[in-house]
Amino acid sequence: MNDTIWKPVPRSVRKALEERGVPVQDICSLSVADMNNDGGLQNIYLLLTKERLYFAVSDQSGEMTYAGAVPPKRRQSEGIAELHTYPLSRLNSPKILNQVVGGLLTVDLDGEETWLCRFSGTKMHRMQRFCEDMQALIRSEPLKERENDGEEYCPQCGAPYPERGRAVCPKCMEKHTVFVRILQYFKNYKLRVAVMLTGVTISGLANAVWPYLSGSVLYDQVLGGGGELAEKLGIPGNAMLLLLILVLTMAGTHFIRHLTGIIHGRMTAFMVPDIVCKLKQRVFDSLKNLSVGFFTRRQTGSLMQRVNGDANEVMGFFIDGLPYFLFNIVTIALSVGVMFSMNWMLALVAIAMLPPAAIVCYVIGPRYWHATGRRARTVRAMYSLLNDDIVGARVVKAFGQEKSENKRFDKVNERVRAAEMRVVHYGNQYDIAYSLTRDIPNLLVWSVGALILLNTPGNFTYGELLTFVSYLTMLQGPLEFFSDVFRWWASSMNSAQRVFEIIDSNPEIQERENPLHMDIQGEVELRNVSFSYEPNKPVLKDINFHIRAGEMLGIVGKSGAGKSTLVNLISRLYDPDDGTVLLDGENVKDISFASLRGAVAMVSQETYIFMGTVAENIAYARPDASREEIVRAAIAASAHGFICRLPDGYDTVIGSGGRELSGGERQRVSIARAILADPKILVLDEATASVDTETERAIQASLEKLIQNRTTISIAHRLSTLRSADRLIVLDNGKLVESGTHEELVKQRGVYYKLLQLQSKALAMRGIE
Amino acid sequence: MTEQTNPQDIRPDTEPDILQQEKKAVEEIIAIRTITAENTIFCRTEGGFVRMEYQTPNGERKTYPRVSVHRCFPFSDPDHFISIREPEADGKEIGLIEDLNALPADMRAMLEEQMNLRYFTPKIRKVHSIKEEYGYAYWDVTTDRGACRFTVRMGGSNVYAIGPNRYLVNDIDGNRFEIPDLYKLSAKEIKQLDLFI
């Protein structure tokens, strides 16, 4: 155990510490800060024994290596410049003060609040644990046993994972394994793939035969009056018949090419949509299984791009790229072979120009692609600005800022223009250089060929020269292809990597093996629950409460006090960092998702309307609900009135692309959804926040009916919403500060009492009620 | 709305009191309190923080054993509008320093010290390489604090302009790096940054 603790410390430092009398065997917690007091990069080693804190400053200035980067080789010579020791008896209440970047480790040293060291964001996670350990040691409590979630380095290459808590090392997830995995998707199409590949090969062959027929055979054999070939075929001297045979053969090769083309096309058309669809389905399946945390960490846009664009990108390469790869290899091999067999000297001349062509493609090509990439980015920027302006048109007009918006647009537009110019510039450059490398070998072949013809007429014919040039021209296409194919391959593999990353990622919230399937009655208990979205920023601290089945609990607190987070834990959208959430006495982690989701329904402040009709939206949780049930639910949520007034009634299509509902209307639809779901535990998270008072009263009345026989947890700013609650809890800054019945809280004269008086009296004074 | 409280719960004599209090609290929230050398004394604590003694506009003397110092315009105007706040994460503002340079040098130094702790942002002097792979870009740079290697998530706005030719880079650990002037870098370096800018 001791060895794992020492992992981040170089051996030389450990030795230096030992020499200075630090009892290295007794160290029970350890952490490394990465800067000195002035913010210079320097390692500071913090070590804890049961009695002391050791604070050792490295004698070398450091390098900062953050997650995702491979750490530099550890210096053998690193030692300790300074060593400070603090007995734990002098220290008290260690904590981490968050800064804009990183934090400060702070303790009360002899009663004076003192910061010991500063560290960057990279060290935050470790430091926080260290701080917890210090707290425990000061209080002489045992250190907390932790699951091994802190594995930060890839076991293969030693590089830190780019994202903590997700053990995926992009460097070690090799490209060829990705390639093989994609091939798996073609498994069901073995026959089709074989047909397609054979077709491509035949088409490559037919393609390569063509110049020979149209050059050598036509000129030397047919026009030459029927040479050896006619003799071989048994029709000596009969040029007309030979011509006929030639034309038929040429037509035949053409026919074969087109036929294989059609076969290829059909196979592609059949396989691609199917495989892309399967791949997308897999991505989507995994996306749904991922926990809410995954979605909040990433931008929706990039996720959508992954589901869609990446799958297409991957398949594009496999369907278009790979077969053409084969096709081009066949073409090149045949062309070069034929050229050498006809005249090796000329062939050498022709081949000699290939390397420069490749260099041109390699040097100028990337510049061109780079420019196009840049153009794409500027165009995107322009679109987002346009979007901004169109969506915000009301504000722009209201503040009379049309002119400045025009200016803003001009700027972006100018950038698009400049990027476009660059694309044209590099495009031209590329074209010119490329045609040079194409034309020079042509010219060379023509002239060298002509020289050979003139000097040694017997060895070489006009027809052969023509054939030669045709083959040379034929090489251009494949060369161009190969200059680009590596980039294509790389970007396709990147896409594949991203796709698999989602498919492979483990949801943070997982159903246990053999979970409990149970009919939840609605008893809820939280025991010592703490939770934070980010390290060292606790949202909930040590929350305890118990709700009997059928009770209604009201949660009161300022915005940001942790109310919504609390209910998210009950429906297990997140798992608590510490403590347990129990439903009917069972840990929610043990309960099957089906039982859990069936028992808990939530009406939250962010209502979400799916694309579909009003009826479908209400019946979201129970698609089999009858029309009668839907209408009853709508009436109970006092949504029936406005729905009937819609021209299409319950069949009105709402959601994106459909009719827009107002905030209050959306809220009522989502309340109807919850009513229809008929859950044992109903969570109302500011469910009536965006409706007017009158509607609220109506909903309130229906909710009162709804909350009978079920556990209800209701969050509200307006205390009037909570009047039917059996008990209330008051959250402040993540802590449960008051709990009890309305009467008890009023007697306590605390936070709740104050809020209550303020709300009722302030309204009364303004003559609202 | 009144029916949810039983009348006997609220004693009439406490009513104006609590409203008065709230009014005062609201006024306090929206008031602008300027901190100057005349009404405030800052001093360094043993523990490396700053202690503050402050005389409120209505003559009250208040002592804060530790204050936190925030810049309102960390990029565009770092020396003006310095917000002195209670140290808790959701602490209230104690007052605003409109011009840091108007304070005596020792006070200014003390506050700057605190702000240096808060805004740790190495300035990128040289870009050695930026490699993009699988949605992350791996940067290898030299900063004014030394060599730094870090990872930036692609896509999204992890590199953004904070002024003309001035950029801020956010890495995946929440560290920040600044490019003070893009055009002070070489053409080759700028080209590497092209992915982001």
Structure, explained:
- In chain A, a hairpin with a 5-residue loop joins β1 and β2 (about 40-50).
- By secondary structure, chain A is α+β, with helices and mostly antiparallel strands.
- In chain A, α9 (about 300-340) runs antiparallel to α14 (about 460-505).
- Chain A has a 6-stranded mixed β-sheet, with helices on both faces. A 4-stranded antiparallel β-sheet of chain A has the order 1-2-3-5. A 4-stranded antiparallel β-sheet of chain A has the order 10-9-12-13, with helices on one face.
- Chain A has 23 helices and 20 strands.
- The model of chain A has no long low-confidence stretch (mean pLDDT about 80).
- Chain A is extended.
- The two termini of chain A are about 65 Å apart.
- Chain A folds into 4 domains: about 1-140, PH-domain like, CATH 2.30.29; about 175-345, ABC transporter transmembrane region fold, CATH 1.20.1560.10; about 345-460; about 525-765, Rossmann fold, CATH 3.40.50.300.
- Chain B is an alpha+beta fold.
- Chain B has 2 domains: about 15-120, no CATH class; about 125-195, no CATH class.
- Chain B is about 20% helix and about 35% strand.
- Chain B contains 3 helices and 12 strands; from the N terminus they run αββββββαββββββα.
- In chain B, the strands form 4 sheets. A 3-stranded antiparallel β-sheet of chain B has the order 1-2-3. A 3-stranded antiparallel β-sheet of chain B has the order 4-5-6.
- In chain B, a hairpin with a 5-residue loop joins β1 (about 40-45) and β2.
- Chain B is elongated.
- The model of chain B is unreliable at about 1-15 (pLDDT under 50).
